[in-house]
Task: structure prediction
Amino acid sequence: EIVMTQSPATLSVSPGERATVSCRASQSVSSNLAWYQQKPGQAPRLLIYGASTRATGIPARFSGGGSGTEFTLTISSLQSEDFAVYYCQQYNNWPITFGQGTRLEIK
Amino acid sequence: EVQLVESGGGLVKPGGSLRLSCAASGFTFSSYSMNWVRQAPGKGLEWVSSINSRSSYIYYADSVKGRFTISRDNAKNSLYLQMNSLRAEDTAVYYCVKVLDSSAYYYYFDFWGQGTLVTVSS
Result:
């Protein structure tokens, strides 16, 4: 099983600033990595797939990068609606696995 | 508009069974692989099971293998999860989830239902 490790567990950032979440895979997943956003009481929403392709309707301030074992999700200028929990997911190998989540909170 | 509506959750005793259903609409259900993903209270996301469009490829997490069975009825646009021998650690919100890629090769998820809560407790 591929273990996905996100860092940090919690990230405190001020609105308007840049936030970067990291995700590391225990073995290469090529570019088969997705990012999701989840707000309290809601289902997750797909942000990024293929490591760097934004899903339909996702604002350009969200960007993904990396390949192999190291990935990042960057939010260039935080808006109030961006404070949420973020998960990475690999789909290169079975079983599909998620990172443990990063909580992005207002500083 | 894509809609995924789960039902069948509830309170069940350890060792009991439940059958979850997911009614899909707004897309060609028979063309897409479907999945169940769960989230224990206050915890992260855990993939449970996947089934391709023709039910010819089925995958399970080790934590549910041998106890849960995923199935689908393309004529009824419905996905199911039969859960047997339930344990306290199966307590979670269960989401019905659609893949974005109809090729059935890449399993990342573009639409999620609102989830149904399964509570396993005596």
About this structure: DSSP finds no helices and eleven strands in chain B.
